[in-house]
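Field log, afternoon session.

UNIT: design team B
ACTIVITY: writing a sequence onto a fixed backbone
BACKBONE:
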């Protein structure tokens, strides 16, 4: 395929049908200068579709430097993509700045921006505000019978319910999210609803249900192009196996997850894996190794945008420090974890099965 117009259109279509890995091959060849901004935009979409959020952000920024001032749609899509990458990496302040730039473009899609604003609130642990914004959107999507949108909104709402302490409501909404995605024939959405279902079943101590959900999600993604999803499947399953006492199997899945997240340069999710490995070592009585993993997790979470991770890392590190005879330091750290949880309105510090 030598025609640059055809190559770009084919790459865009591959991204739309869930094959961003194949799109990348079409985007390597050079295009005329007038098409470079579009190539960079599609490159950003292809990279983001695989979970390369940092690299995708670089592509979106490059597209914005080249975009024609009259091409409002391309500029909006690039700012929106950049906001989504920043949000996924926990950089919520950067996400808000990108959304502000998108909002200034004449004719900007206000409905899409409102959804992204709500998702940034959610990513910033402002779950009650996120719920207030998301629930009316769910009502609209149901009236339109847009089942993929219904599934996505229920997924987002269920996550915010979980972290606000409404575990029963969260469980219900994740189940409804899965049903809506199935009704809309949205296979990717189904996998992420299963992740959510696995997570809420896990924190409620329903380990067989959680394990089934994570295994099913992993099977759906298999060796496909969604590297982030595959890493998530390994990490979620590892959490469940750890809680079931299957520490060897859990560690194997944490290692597989770590390798994938490291390839994506996903610092925040790597921190969750470090925290999980710390839990493994702590249960085995290897406190020095547990402390190393918890400190690595705490360092990454301290970058901002992940209060839940900070709470878990501080609380777990405090337990290890206390066990190692450093009680004053442990008490100070534990108190700071509880204070942050209460200030943020989160309940992660109460989750025995987290």
């Amino acid at each position: 395929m030598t025609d640059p117009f055809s190559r770009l259109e084919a790459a865009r279509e591959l991204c739309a049908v869930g094959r961003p890995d194949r799109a990348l091959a079409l985007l390597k060849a050079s295009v005329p200068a007038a098409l470079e901004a579009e190539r960079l935009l599609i490159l950003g979409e292809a990279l983001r579709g695989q979970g390369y959020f940092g690299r995708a952000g670089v592509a979106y920024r490059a597209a914005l430097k080249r975009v024609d001032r009259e091409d409002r749609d391309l500029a909006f899509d690039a700012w929106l993509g950049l906001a989504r990458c920043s949000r996924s990496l926990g950089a919520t302040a950067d996400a808000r700045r990108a959304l502000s730039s998108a909002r200034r473009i004449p004719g900007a899609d206000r409905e899409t921006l409102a959804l992204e604003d709500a998702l940034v609130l959610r990513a910033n642990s402002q779950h009650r505000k996120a719920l207030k914004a998301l629930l009316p959107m769910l009502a609209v999507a149901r009236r339109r019978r847009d089942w993929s949108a219904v599934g996505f909104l229920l997924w987002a709402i269920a996550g915010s319910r979980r972290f606000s302490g409404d575990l029963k409501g969260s469980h219900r909404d994740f189940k409804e999210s899965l049903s809506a995605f199935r009704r809309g024939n949205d296979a990717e959405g189904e996998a992420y609803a299963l992740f959510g279902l696995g997570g809420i079943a896990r924190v409620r101590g329903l380990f067989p249900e959680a394990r089934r959900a994570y295994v099913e999600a992993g099977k759906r993604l298999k060796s496909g192009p969604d590297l982030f999803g595959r890493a998530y499947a390994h990490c979620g399953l590892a959490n469940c196996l750890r809680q079931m006492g299957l520490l060897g199997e859990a560690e194997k899945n944490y290692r597989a997850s770590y390798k994938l997240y490291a390839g994506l340069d996903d610092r925040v999710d790597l921190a969750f894996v470090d925290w999980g490995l710390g839990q493994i070592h702590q249960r085995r009585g290897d406190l020095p190794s547990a402390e190393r993993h918890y400190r690595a997790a705490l360092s990454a979470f301290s970058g901002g945008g992940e209060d839940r991770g900070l709470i878990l890392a501080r609380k777990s590190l405090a337990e290890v420090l206390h066990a190692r005879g450093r009680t004053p330091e442990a008490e100070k750290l534990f108190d700071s974890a509880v204070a942050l949880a209460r200030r943020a309105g989160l309940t992660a510090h109460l989750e025995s099965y987290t």
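LOG NOTE: The mean pLDDT is 94.
NEXT ACTIVITY: expression trials, pending approval
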